[in-house]
Amino acid sequence: NQRIANVDRLIDQAGRPIEFDASGAASLAKQKWEPHTSAGSPGHEQVTVDKVACLKLKVGAEARGAWQLSANLPAGKYVLEAKAKPAGVVPVGAATTAPPAPGQPSPGVGIGLRGGQMSAPIVGTGDWTVMRQPFDVTDGNATTTLRLQLYAKAGEVLFDLGSLRVVKAK
Questions:
Q1: Strand 16-17 relative to strand 63-72: parallel, antiparallel, unpaired?
Q2: Got the DSSP string for 124-144?
Q3: Of 17, 42, 96, 157, which sits with the fewest C-beta atoms within 10 Å of its C-beta?
Q4: Spatial contact of 157 and 137, defined as CB atoms under 8 Å apart
Q5: Dihedrals φ, ψ of 72, to 5°?
Q6: pLDDT for 44 beyond 80
């Protein structure tokens, strides 16, 4: 019924609670990751590659796309973790291994917060790489938007869905 669909949509927009285990880690594999386009026409797909469930981003011309997750996290310090596998990623601008300024996209493959700090980028072609990005939540009543991003002229990236997690920083 329409009322139930509207309530589900509102819950999705507000973000679903993240449940942490005894070690302080929370898997994000079963959360609702949404495709997002910031520029150009990136491709978004959920695929299985070598028996690994993945979120895929692909660009053939300059574009910036992401998979995003709205989450309700209590105030605190966290680390977003993801395994990424780039293929032919040609970054927009000069290749760098330095993290971008807060609020700026990583040129290449990056993870982090929408409008917040993103990780140091990875570019080119490579094997599975563990990416980690620390972040703070100062307002536990606000929704935090986690982001897996590709900002490139060409290439693609796979994010291992089973590797996606948030860990409480010690």
A1: parallel
A2: BS-S-EEEEEEEEE--TTSEE
A3: 17
A4: no
A5: -100, 110
A6: yes
Q: Rounded CA gap, 77 and 17, in Å? A: 16
Distances (CA, A) of 116 to 33, 86, 165: 18, 22, 18
Total residue length of the chain: 170
- Contact between residue 125 and residue 91 where contact means Cβ atoms under 8 Å apart: no
Q: Is the dihedral of CA 86, 89, 93, 96 positive or negative?
A: positive
Give 61-96 pLDDT, tens digit per residue.
Answer: 888 899 999 998 889 999 999 999 999 999 887 666
- pTM score of the predicted model: 0.86
Task: For residue 85, give both structure tokens.
Answer: 């596998």
Both tokens of 48, joined, read: 């299985």
Instruction: For residue 23, count other CB atoms closer than 10 A to its CB.
Output: 8
User: Contact at 8 Å (CB) between 83 and 130?
Assistant: yes
**Euclidean distance between the first and final Cα of the chain, in Å?**
45
Residues 144, 137: Cα–Cα separation, whole Å: 8
